[in-house]
Amino acid sequence: MKDEVMFLSLIAPGPSNPKDKLDVFLQPLIFELQELWYDGAATYDIHSQTNFTMRAALMWTISDFPAYAMLSGWSTAGKQACPYCMSDSEAFTLVHSGKTSWFDNHRKFLPDYHRLWRKKNMFIRGRIVLHPAPAIRTGTELLNDIEDYGFLPSYDVQNREICHLARCGWRRRSILWELTYWLTNLIRHNLDVMHIEKNIFDNVFNTIMNVPGRTKDNAKSRADLVEMRIRTELHPDVSTGRHPKASYTLERSAREVLCRWLKDVRFSDGYASNMSRHIGSKRLRLLSNEEYHVVATYVLLNCVELKSYVSIYEDQIRAEIPGISNQDLDSNIQANYFGCFKSYIRAIEQQGEFVSEQIKQVAPGPMRKVNTYRGYCINGFKFYTVHDTTFKATDNLGVQVRGHSSDDVQTEYYGFIEEIIEIEYPGLPLKKTVIFKCCWYNPHPRLGTRVHRKYKIVEVNRTRHLPRNELFVFATQASQVVFLQYPTSGRTPSAWLYVSGLRQRAYVADIVTDNNVQTDATSAFQNNESQVHEVETQFLLNSENLVDATVNFDDELDALSTDSGTEDVQESSDENFEVESD
User: Fold this and answer.
1) Which label site among 211, 428, 431, 481 has the fewest CB atoms less than 10 Å from its CB?
2) Nearest residue to 569 via CA among 427, 369, 295
3) pLDDT at residue 228, rounded to an integer
């Protein structure tokens, strides 16, 4: 439809959705439609050059399914959400997923006494179809039902009481019934195919591509298959608890082929967006021995639930080395704590003391194989690595983190991101976290960081950096800053950069730049496939299952030399090829 023949009839003000109160905003439109139906409007016909009385009628509405409830008055939630089956719906609630399902409700729409009506093992086991689909109800029948229930045009207390007592799908009498011809229309409401196609495609595509957090093939859906006694080949193994791979899920090599094809496909102007912007792949690599040790130590030191063990270790070292400085103590922790903690957990487990499964899985350290990303959205910020910002007109690599120095003084650390890494720990449930590998400017006052005397703004020295053993930070702990140069007329720019803080945004657009990857939303400690970004600063270990924190590290210090540097290379089984969706 051309723009010149379209006009805006009404605007429903926000900020909240009007829902069942939409009729209030439709009243002026209904009044004008009634006037156009009965009285008409004087109109000039440019072809015959005469005036005539034009009459108009509303043929139907076009909306998505949630808006259908607002326009029709029939609820699109719950077991009676289908406006065709209505009270004859055979929907049920999935036991484990907790969602309403209409599985095996389609056979009754087949021709009468179709051969599939009697099939007991192809759908829900032991179930057959005994009656055909309900007949299409006329507008008069629908209006009579609404009036028999006593629903009013607007949503008020009486309508709620009627819904509660009648337990029907109607929620109110839609104001559209005020139109004289509305009950004689054969089609009153149409569903927007575009929304339905997109939703179905997203769910199917994310499932066959096995996109974490977006696939519908998860542990709960597999448990529902067991409950319904169907698709036995997808039931989890009772002894191991593992789920077999589904035949409809593509292998990693096949996913790569498909994504490369989508990235290279070309359409004519106006027919499709540039899909190459939305497609990329995870880059997999192995952590070096030094990186592995630093990462494992950093995670253990920053787990809130494991802070008590750090304190015990510090007290033990101070007792063995009286007068040790804070700086030497920090060096000792960075060098030895990971090995001691790993040996300590192993020892108390051998002694028969209780150790939670999550601590046993975290103690040996993460897997060596990690996923790296070029971009990441979290905490209301969009971050890029220094490599992917080099040729951009924008700057998204600056990081600010609040921490403590060796003297236990609260300090602001400033730096830029060199690499975005997703680490994973072995065992179930999934335990993943994203960390930033950063290059940090020296936070020492007047040496690497200073506050401008006159303007009270923070400045960092681009030539002064911290040692390379302090690299990583949880993505959930990072705030974003921008480093700006001062204007100068000289040939050599100043070594001092001005730090400008950024405000968090409630919505961050997807990372859609060329050859970029949109990461899935993962919290600091992901326990299932459907989590989203949450601003967390700790691993979600169960504090009630922590091991006894009163045991000394004496017996484990001697074992450090034999444990350090002998970690086996562990590989992650998560090799998903990610696809970004709008």
Assistant:
1) 428
2) 369
3) 86
* DSSP string for 167-204: --SB-S--GGGGSTTGGG-S--EEE-HHHHHHHHHHHH
Tokens of 65: 């399914």
Instruction: Give me the pLDDT at residue 508, please.
Output: 57
DSSP string, 349-417: HHTT----HHHHHHTT---SEEEEESEEEETTEEEE-HHHHTT-SS---EEEEEEE-TTS-EEEEEEEE
Please report, to the nearest 10 degrees, the dihedral formed by the alpha carbons of residues 523, 526, 528, 530 taken in order.
20
Distance CA 577, CA 262 (A): 13
- 483 has which bridge partners? 499
Among 529, 345, 342, 547, smallest CA distance to 431 is for 529
Cβ neighbours around 514 below 10 Å, total: 10
- How far from 230 is each of 107, 207, 219, 235, 287, CA to CA, in Å? 17, 19, 15, 9, 43
Task: Check: CB of residue 377 under 8 Å from CB of residue 533.
Answer: yes
- Residues 160-192 have pLDDT tens digits of 788 878 888 898 899 999 999 999 999 999 998
For 69, 139, 186, the CA distances from 171, given in Å and listed in that order, are 9, 17, 22
Cβ atoms of 563 and 365 closer than 8 Å: no
d(CA 477, CA 498): 22
Alpha carbon distance 404, 176 (integer Å): 64
Q: Which are the contacts of 216, defined by CB distance < 8 A and separation ≥ 6?
A: 203, 206, 207
Sign of torsion over alpha carbons 384, 389, 393, 398? positive
pTM of the model: 0.55
Contact (Cβ atoms closer than 8 angstroms) between residue 443 and residue 416? no
**Which residues, 6 or more positions from 215, have their beta carbon under 8 angstroms from its beta carbon?**
206, 207, 209, 529
Q: What is the mean pLDDT of each run of 10 residues along the chain (582 residues)?
A: 74 79 89 94 93 94 90 90 87 90 87 84 81 89 91 74 84 92 93 88 91 87 89 88 89 86 75 63 79 89 83 87 86 88 86 82 88 87 85 85 71 90 84 90 85 86 80 89 84 85 71 42 34 33 34 42 38 35 36
Q: Can you say whether the dihedral through the CA atoms of 412, 418, 424, 430 is positive or negative?
A: positive
Alpha-helical segments (H) within 239-325: 252-264, 289-301, 307-320
Task: Note whether 440 and 415 are within 8 A (CB).
Answer: yes
- In three-state secondary structure terms, 305 is helix
What does the pLDDT look like over 478-512, one tens digit per residue?
A: 999 999 888 877 777 888 898 998 888 765 555 54
Q: Can you tell me whether residue 530 is helix, strand or coil?
A: coil
The terminus-to-terminus CA distance of the chain in angstroms comes to 25
Q: Structure tokens of 331? A: 């060096």
